[in-house]
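Here is my example:
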Amino acid sequence: MKFSKSVLASGALLVASIVAIAAQKPATVEAPYFEVDPFWPKPLPNHWVTGSTIGVSVDAQDNVWTIHRPNTVEANFKAADINVGDARGRDDEAQPGAAGPPATPSPSGPTPIGECCKVAPPVLVYDQAGSLVKSWGGPGAGYDWPDSNHGITVDHRGNVWLAGNGQKDTQVLKFDGAGKFLLQIGKHGVHNGSNDVDNFWQPTKIWEDADTGKYKRHWGAYGKKPSDEKMPAYNPKSTPSTQFNTVHCAIVSNDRFVYVCDRVNDRIQVFRTDGTFVREVVIDPNTYRSGSVWDMTFSRDPQQTYIYLANGVNEAIHVVLRSSLEVLTTFGDGGRQPGQFYGVHNLATDSKGNLYATETYSGARIQRFLYKGLRPVTKKEQGVVWPQKR
């Protein structure tokens, strides 16, 4: 069969056009997809309840560790911990003249004002089934327990690092997995400015990278020396701040980059481990008050392709492409139901890629989001990632 030159030329043009169109078509963007697990964790035993839940970590056995603030549990939620005669047991809604509880305990001992509930120990550990398998924590001999618990990290040896953000919390604590005290870095209540190499200042989260706790180095925004000078209030239209404003997390990737949550400045800053500044990106720049970058954790693939970012003002979790720091998609919303948030505060992943999120303030809980694999991004704002099957 013979073709004329014109037919061949037309065919060539047609093929070239198809190739050109294919080249112009944008590649499908994929991102990890999650569904909330409304049945995890299981109810706590002993009528226990939790306060502001401000730390989460996953150990090598995929146990999930949390820490909460017992002193934030409201009086009406801990009747079994309040005795008759305690001022906290007074009911402001009681009608005038109504009979009240006796002013003194009964001869048999203190009388609780009710049966539910009791405040759980600060450190709680759940297995993959959602059952509580361990609990401990609180003041003890030889160390200064934080005034305001903040952050928990289980290291590669199963030891547990804790911090706090109270006005006098200038220390970091290390325990073994059973709660035995091992090490304190910093002296409670002692702080000599942002360049103090012996004490911290309201440390919020620990990224464990050593055993001894010996000082190595520190730096501020853009890798420069920190300063204690007062900075202007955050304004997205102003020149970016030369100082951090509430460093709320620092995580280190497998390829040795340090990603810092500069929370109130609405930004991530990236460094090398020697403090060399690499780049920054602003997340939801019109977020004020407590800012948009509360915590971050990496996806569990070897390349750590994605970063999951907690935004506690906008009550959402952002899925960020680590290579570009672009937000690919976002899920969550404000509320009390599964998949909604009230102060989403900390994030961690397990070996299966599932994501765990704690909530501060009166959110006071942890939720699990089941990893469902990579899917094309069809919505920038997913809302509540409710299970597809019931």
